[in-house]
Amino acid sequence: MPSRVVVFDYGSGNLRSAQRAMERTGADVTVTSDPHAALDADGLVVPGVGAFSACMSSLRAAGGDRIIGRRVAGGRPVLGICVGMQVLFDKGVERADPRAEDQVTEGCGEWPGTVDRLRAPIVPHMGWNTVRPPEDTRLFAGIGPGERFYFVHSYAVREWEFSSHNERIREPGVTWAEHGEPFVAAVENGPLCATQFHPEKSGDAGARLLANWVATL
């Protein structure tokens, strides 16, 4: 039986492109905002584009923050994409105007850390870039070190703040990329995985990553 995957529709994200990319893995894919379907699926994909604050507001309105929390607590896989990854952290800091005060928005809090504006000569970071996954990666299994992934973002997690201080708890696997400075490009943390780049727009490398994720369901 193919794995049942829900692409969560909360009003943000490239839903159809994510759906088509997931279907190419052989999964049975549904795009829906139904919370019961999102909870019951073998895997949940949370896409996201645009501003952190707007995505978080829409996600909360659809009950997505609670759905993600319940799935992770129960060991049920979740994959966040782009801003769908960013909202998994503690908070996002945005500046609509350099003269204005920072707008701080609380995220889902699944990982400690702050999503902040990239410090780079050119922002947004738009286009293809290489990444540096950890040695024990499952998401990037079979993907060569020179492969490139497609990014479109102005904000990212620039510092990884998670530390378990417990030898029995496996540290999350963090993948890094660089645009002006290093930033978190992907995270693998048990049932909770996420990518800052768009695997559904990343050609063969992105297709392999999605297939690797579906294989874990």
What labels describe this entry?
217 residues; alpha/beta; 7-stranded mixed beta sheet; 4-stranded mixed beta sheet; 6 helices
What does this protein structure show overall?
The chain has helices spanning 15-23, 35-40, 52-61, 64-73, 83-86, 203-215, and strands at 4-8, 28-32, 43-46, 78-81, 89-94, 103-106, 111-117, 125-130, 148-153, 155-157, 173-178, 182-189, 192-195. It is of the alpha/beta class. It starts with a strand and ends with a helix. The mean pLDDT is 94. Strands 2-1-3-4-13-12-11 form a seven-stranded mixed β-sheet, with helices on both faces. Strand 11 (173-178) and strand 12 form a beta hairpin. It is found in: Cytoplasm. Heterodimer of HisH and HisF. This is Imidazole glycerol phosphate synthase subunit HisH. Keywords: Amino-acid biosynthesis, Cytoplasm, Glutamine amidotransferase, Histidine biosynthesis, Hydrolase, Lyase.
